[in-house]
């Protein structure tokens, strides 16, 4: 059994900042030192300077497959495994494979390569991080569909920020370096505005700093960072079938990650109604490596509070209670009941993010 | 510090902006390449950009180079025009002084200045090189320059805690904020360790800590740029890339728990901690005393304390949270302040909350 390969991610904040270029530049330097380095997947986007950088590097042919009558090309993971280079370059980490591929996502293909002992260098943008999905939508109006769970990035051996100022990036677009001119103009007017780019860039910087810190803190965190009583934080997310639970999961997980807390999720069901929606959220949570539980109970708040106490939870994250009819306003909301019954824990109500 | 809840920038801030705009009209553009250690590749990136700009037809000149030049930089330098620095020796120390007279006369479109933090010899026009650069900018010359986080004055205490060393040279952070553009040059510490010429191994942990410091500094500068951009375009930002935590205190709050938790969260996220209270005229002496002691604790923890003036408690907090782009709101919670058919203030706050989380802290001593 071979040892695991290393994963290195070139992180940017938009198309055209130079992630692939930088990766190729470093690859060429490694190749000159005699390292066995190959291109496993490269997306040229018609960018001349970048394409020129691939010269002298071996490329593994892509696999073509047909879906819905159209031909697509994907990374040929089996061919890369067979070739077994020391380092494989894989562009666009967040890519979703065409249906009919062996694995759903390219990052899963990359995992297979890394498990087989191949070092992988790859590229992605900060907006593809699952935990930032709502924030990115909120600031730019774009709902990113191709996401990578945060733990995948956290497990990378290296994350390198590829920076470029928004002004320089917009210049590149204007010069037609990134996209053909018609598409470039549309991009400049819509997504690539100075405000959007500046916001995304700040996110990329903060996220890289976070990744650096995570790797530093293999050591136990300093005393001041722990809760006053020295307990390790444990965060519990209370799921329902409501669509807003997705925001709740991402937000809770993000806070848990930053506090280096364990993260659990439960759903308390008093009836089997809406089970499918709940199951969808549960599976989303599990993909983000959150341990999930379903509990039966007619007294929802009490079930949550008792579970939380038994699990040593320090913080509870909930969505807003639904508006109640006027005649029920005498009674407490679930949130109020949980707060009252969990006085030894902090209760956080997560609001939906709106634009 | 008094607060504004009308959503408008305060007059001093406006004045600062107007002055900055005026300066900018005739001033050259400043672009700074920021790195976290030598050998991270800042200088190379700067020269590389100079080369590309020259290829695109700009009038590019090199005003100062570092004493140690790598072969890849040497290659670029060969294609660029240079105004040599003046070498002098003073009190047993060697100095390289930028030839300002020659640079003013030559007046290029863009001037490359390496080693921004260098000192000039005593008796020079300016004590430090970054001040020379400011003069070039004032005369309409664009600048590309490179600097290390170790040399940013306001960061030097932190750097010293990490490395145990303090550089005698420094550039004020304010100068960084004058830059139209700042680009961070990042690389994993391992890459630097390969490159050490003398075979010694730097401490990778220290390098990683410096790296984080540089990234967070750049993020703060960018945050400010974002704010300026939004203000100048009349866009009210409702969004922050940084976590911003607002702790709302009342006399009955469990202030210690709320502030400690707020502080811990702010530290973990490298975010901002804000504290606010809503002014109430009818407070009894005991409540007033309680509140004062909470606020004293907040100040002790280094939080900005804001007084909100609005007769509607909930509206005061909502307005302030929006203005400050708050992402987490910590409030005290009482089980007594619920009306029968009317909803209590905390319910109203939760219902109206947009874009921030509400964390509830029960008041101490309630059943």
Q: Are there runs of chain B of 5+ residues with pLDDT below 50, and where? A: 1-7
Outline of chain A: elongated
* Terminus-to-terminus distance of chain B: 36 Å
Count of distinct strands of chain B: 13
Radius of gyration of CA atoms of chain A, rounded to a whole number: 23 Å
Major sheet strand order of chain B: 3-2-6-7-1-8
What's the total count of β strands of chain A? 13
Task: Decide which structural class fits the backbone of chain B.
Answer: alpha/beta
What portion of residues of chain A is helical? 25-40%
The share of residues in helices of chain B is 40-55%
Helix count of chain A equals 13
Strand order of the largest sheet of chain A: 3-2-6-7-1-8
Low-pLDDT ranges of chain A: 220-226
List the total number of helices of chain B. Answer: 13
The biggest sheet of chain A, with number of strands, parallel, antiparallel or mixed sense and barrel status, is: 6 strands, parallel
Q: Give the structural class of chain A.
A: alpha/beta
Distance between the termini of chain A: 51 Å
- Mean residue pLDDT of chain A: 89
Can you walk me through this structure?
The complex is a heterodimer of chains A (355) and B (367). The longest helix of chain A is centred in the middle third of the chain and has 23 residues, at 194-216. With 355 residues, chain A is an alpha/beta fold. Chain A has helices at 19-32, 48-53, 77-83, 106-115, 133-140, 150-154, 166-174, 181-189, 194-216, 245-258, 275-287, 300-310, 334-341, and strands at 7-12, 37-41, 58-59, 63-67, 70-74, 87-90, 119-125, 158-161, 234-238, 262-269, 291-296, 315-318, 346-349. In chain A, the strands form three sheets. In chain A, strands 3-2-6-7-1-8 form a six-stranded parallel β-sheet, with helices on both faces. In chain A, strands 11-10-9-12-13 form a five-stranded parallel β-sheet, sandwiched between helices. Chain A has a two-stranded antiparallel ribbon with strand order 4-5. Chain B is elongated. In chain B, the strands form three sheets. A six-stranded parallel β-sheet of chain B has the order 3-2-6-7-1-8, sandwiched between helices. The model of chain B is unreliable at 1-7 (pLDDT under 50). By secondary structure, chain B is an alpha/beta fold. Chain B is built from 13 helices and 13 strands. The two termini of chain B are 36 Å apart. At the A-B interface, α5, β8, α9, α10 and α13 of A face β8, α9, α10, α13 and β13 of B.
């Amino acid at each position: 059994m071979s040892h695991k390969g290393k994963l290195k991610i070139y992180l940017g904040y938009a198309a055209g900042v130079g992630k692939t270029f930088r990766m190729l530049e470093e690859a060429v330097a490694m190749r000159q030192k005699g390292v066995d380095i190959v291109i496993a997947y490269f997306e040229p986007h018609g960018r001349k300077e970048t394409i020129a950088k691939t010269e002298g590097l071996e490329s593994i042919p892509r696999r073509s497959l047909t879906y819905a009558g159209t031909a697509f090309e994907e990374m040929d993971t089996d061919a890369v495994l067979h070739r077994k280079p020391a380092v494989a370059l894989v562009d666009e980490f967040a890519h979703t494979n065409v249906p009919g591929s062996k694995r759903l996502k390219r990052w899963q293909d990359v995992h297979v390569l890394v498990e087989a002992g191949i070092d992988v260098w790859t590229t992605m943008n900060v907006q593809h991080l699952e935990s930032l999905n709502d924030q990115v939508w909120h600031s730019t109006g774009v709902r990113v569909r191709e996401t990578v769970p945060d733990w995948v990035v956290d497990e990378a051996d290296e994350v390198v920020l590829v920076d470029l100022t928004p002004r320089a990036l917009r210049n590149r677009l204007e010069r037609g370096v990134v996209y053909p001119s018609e598409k470039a103009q549309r991009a400049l007017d819509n997504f690539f505005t100075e405000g959007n780019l500046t916001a995304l860039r700040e996110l990329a910087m903060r996220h890289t700093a976070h990744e650096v810190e995570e790797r530093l803190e293999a050591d136990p965190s300093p005393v001041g960072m722990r809760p006053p009583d020295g307990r390790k934080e444990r965060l519990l997310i209370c799921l329902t079938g409501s669509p807003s639970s997705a925001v709740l999961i991402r937000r809770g997980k993000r806070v848990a990650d930053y506090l280096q807390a364990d993260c659990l999720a439960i759903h308390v069901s008093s009836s089997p109604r809406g089970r499918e929606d709940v199951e969808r959220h549960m599976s989303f949570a599990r993909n983000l490596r959150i341990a999930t539980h379903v509990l039966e109970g007619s007294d929802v708040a009490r079930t949550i509070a008792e579970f939380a106490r038994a699990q040593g939870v320090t913080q509870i994250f909930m969505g807003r209670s639904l508006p109640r009819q006027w005649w029920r306003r005498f009674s407490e909301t679930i949130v109020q009941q949980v707060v009252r019954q969990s006085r030894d824990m902090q209760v956080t109500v997560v609001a939906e993010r709106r634009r | 510090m008094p607060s504004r809840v009308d959503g408008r920038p305060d007059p001093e801030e406006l004045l600062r902006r107007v002055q900055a705009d005026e300066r900018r009209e005739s001033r050259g553009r400043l672009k700074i390449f920021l790195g976290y250690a030598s050998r991270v590749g800042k200088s190379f990136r700067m020269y590389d950009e100079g080369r590309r700009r020259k290829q695109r037809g700009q009038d590019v000149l090199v005003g100062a180079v570092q004493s140690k030049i790598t072969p890849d930089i040497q290659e670029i330098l060969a294609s660029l025009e240079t105004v040599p620095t003046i070498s002098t020796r003073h009190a047993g120390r060697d100095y390289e002084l930028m030839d300002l007279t020659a640079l003013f006369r030559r007046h290029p479109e863009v001037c490359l200045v390496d080693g921004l933090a260098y000192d000039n010899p005593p008796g020079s026009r300016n004590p430090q090189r970054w001040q020379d650069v400011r003069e070039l900018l004032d005369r309409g010359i664009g600048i590309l320059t490179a600097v290390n986080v170790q040399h940013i004055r306001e960061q030097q205490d932190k750097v010293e805690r990490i490395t145990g060393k303090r550089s005698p040279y420094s550039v004020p952070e304010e100068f960084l904020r004058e830059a139209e553009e700042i680009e961070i040059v990042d690389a994993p510490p391992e890459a630097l360790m390969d490159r050490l010429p003398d075979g010694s191994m730097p401490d990778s942990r220290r390098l990683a800590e410096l790296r984080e410091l540089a990234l967070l500094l750049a993020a703060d500068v960018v945050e400010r740029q974002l704010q300026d951009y939004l203000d100048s375009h009349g866009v009210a930002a409702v969004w922050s890339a940084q976590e911003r935590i607002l702790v709302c205190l009342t006399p009955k709050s469990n202030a210690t728990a709320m502030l400690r938790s707020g502080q811990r969260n702010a530290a973990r996220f490298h975010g901002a901690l804000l504290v606010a209270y809503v002014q109430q005229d009818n407070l009894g002496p005991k409540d007033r005393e309680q509140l004062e002691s909470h606020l004293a604790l907040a100040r002790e923890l280094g939080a900005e304390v804001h007084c909100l003036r609005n007769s509607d408690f909930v509206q005061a907090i909502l307005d302030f949270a929006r203005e400050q782009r708050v992402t987490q709101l910590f409030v005290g919670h009482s089980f007594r302040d619920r009306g029968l058919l009317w909803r209590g203030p905390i319910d109203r706050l939760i219902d109206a909350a947009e874009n921030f989380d509400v964390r509830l802290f029960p008041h101490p001593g309630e059943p």
